[in-house]
Automatic annotation (TrEMBL):
This is ABC-type quaternary amine transporter. It comes from the Bacteria. Residues 4-237 form the ABC transporter domain. Coiled coil: none annotated.
Length: 351
């Protein structure tokens, strides 16, 4: 059975349609990342799952049970927030025990569940830690406490609202791996809202890409990255170049004033198209190099090269357009050929 089913969910805030008929099935024990630009409705969707936001239409089902109008405390979900939301006046132990005491669990069980949650989140190394208050912990430790508090109540659904975005890069990387391991070990159905594509692609079983209150694409991380379903998804994932194009009679493509040969995957019946090419899919070669089978070429001029630590970002002028090409070695300024595998040229009809 599907763990979570969302059917035609609608939410309005005044005249803003935050959710525009969202339908989604989430399989039990999977981690689903909701990814999209700011304001696309990610948090609203998560809050509708938690029951903190009332919906204006549609349904939310957990294990087949309609929970659309259930209050949050009866849904058996646990939410972890970006800002940890720990109670500053309480000790770490009391923070984690809070939900268990609300449920009036016996003292012994509270003790053992808090200890188990501390161990799960690897906070059990320092015997003094449970007696400290949140302010005496690092950001990463505070987020582990928030996670421990969420897991202690043994929720049927774990909801994560940008839990790593306040942490520095190294802690974030480590917690990504730890949260994913923990989620798999416990087999807990998890919905993770993020605007960080690397985080979504590296942690999730399924990625849901949202735009303007709607779902653009649902798929495995490699699927959405390698086979984007829309110009929006193609542009949103990776560092992308977007160029206007025209389909020529015979199935060739004109882009940036140049003709790319046939063999590209073109949308049927479209004359005017949007062409998306990721900066990392472009190889820069000297003029005169012949493309191999399955490659297309745009002639251009390297105008600028910027060292970015792990790559060199080239600004290349192609006709009247400017594109960006990333490479691990720098190319000289001047005439160049931008070589792209034909399968990495994404072409979408202009609506
Ligand atoms: N309480 C509210 N009152 C009015 N408008 C709201 C409210 N909450 C959200 N909105 C609007 O609904 C839309 C979706 O907001 P939401 O917070 O779900 O987006 P998001 O994708 O989570 O964005 P972010 O990544 O910036 O957090 C936005 O246009 C937002 O301004």
């Amino acid at each position: 059975m599907t763990a979570i089913r969302v059917e035609k969910l609608e939410k309005w805030f005044g005249r803003v349609r935050a959710l525009d008929g969202i339908s989604l099935d989430i399989q039990p024990g999977t981690l689903v990342a909701i990814l999209g630009p700011s304001g696309c409705g990610k948090t609203t969707l998560l809050r509708c799952l938690a029951g903190f936001t009332a919906v204006d239409g549609g349904q939310v089902l957990f294990d087949g049970e309609d929970v659309t109008h259930l209050p949050p405390h009866l849904r058996q979900t646990a939410l972890v927030f970006q800002n940890y939301a720990l109670w500053p006046h309480m000790t770490i132990f009391d923070n984690i025990a809070y939900g268990l005491r609300l449920k009036k669990l016996p003292r012994r069980e509270v003790q053992s569940r808090v200890e188990a949650a501390l161990a799960l989140t690897e906070l059990n190394g320092d015997p003094d830690l449970p007696r400290r208050r949140p302010a005496a912990l690092s950001g990463g430790q505070q987020q582990r406490v928030a996670l421990a508090r969420a897991l202690a109540v043994e929720p049927r659904v774990l909801l994560l609202d940008e839990p790593l975005s306040n942490l520095d890069a190294r802690v974030r990387q480590r917690l990504r791996v730890e949260i994913r391991c923990l989620q798999k070990k416990l087999g807990i159905t998890t919905v993770h809202v993020t605007h960080d594509q690397e985080e979504a692609l590296s942690m999730a079983d399924t990625v849901v890409i949202m735009n303007g209150g709607r779902i653009e694409q649902v798929g495995r991380p490699a699927e959405v990255f390698q086979r984007p379903a829309s110009a929006f998804v193609a542009e949103f994932l990776g560092n992308s170049n977007t160029l206007p194009g025209r389909v020529l009679p015979g199935g060739a493509l004109e882009v940036a004033g140049q003709r790319l040969p046939g063999g590209l995957a073109l949308p049927p019946d479209a004359a005017t198209v949007t062409v998306v090419i990721r900066a990392g899919d472009i190889t820069l070669r000297s003029p005169g190099t012949s493309p191999a089978e399955g490659q297309v070429v745009l002639a251009g001029v390297v105008e600028d090269v910027l060292f970015q630590g792990n790559l060199y970002r080239h600004t290349v002028v192609v006709g009247r357009q400017t594109i960006v090409a990333d490479a691990t070695t720098p190319s000289r300024r001047g005439p160049v050929l931008a070589v792209i595998p034909a399968v990495k040229v994404f072409v979408f009809p202009v609506p």
